[in-house]
Specification:
Distance between the termini: 24 Å
Strand content: 5-15%
CATH class: Mainly Alpha
Oligomer: single chain
Length: 106
């Protein structure tokens, strides 16, 4: 069974909450790297995509960003840092509430 975009939502929220400066956020590259570290890829996730050099998990992580899944659900915002010009993700209040509720349900 392979990892789906929805499987990455809670790990992504945890990563954003645990960022060194959560009020500023983290780059999409850092989010992708940390998701890759946290998710246990299945054999299917590690399959190299046809005509590419990356695997299925990399594609699912990219889709989370390109489909704006976190933003569409109101869990995070993506913005350009006015000083550096880098794109960053930051949790919204709804994202914090969702994360806290999930942590309390454990």
């Amino acid at each position: 069974m392979r990892t789906l975009e929805n499987d990455l939502i809670m790990p992504a929220l945890n990563i954003l909450a645990d960022a060194a400066q959560p009020e500023i956020g983290i780059s999409t590259a850092e989010l992708a790297r940390k998701l890759r570290e946290q998710v246990e890829p299945t054999a299917e996730d590690r399959e190299i995509l046809q005509g590419r050099t990356d695997d299925r998990l990399s594609q699912v992580i990219r889709n989370l960003v390109s489909h704006r899944t976190l933003e569409r659900r109101g869990l995070a915002i993506y913005y350009k840092n006015p000083i550096t010009g880098r794109g960053l993700y930051r949790l919204t209040e709804m994202g914090n509430r969702t994360l806290n509720e999930a942590r309390n349900d454990r």
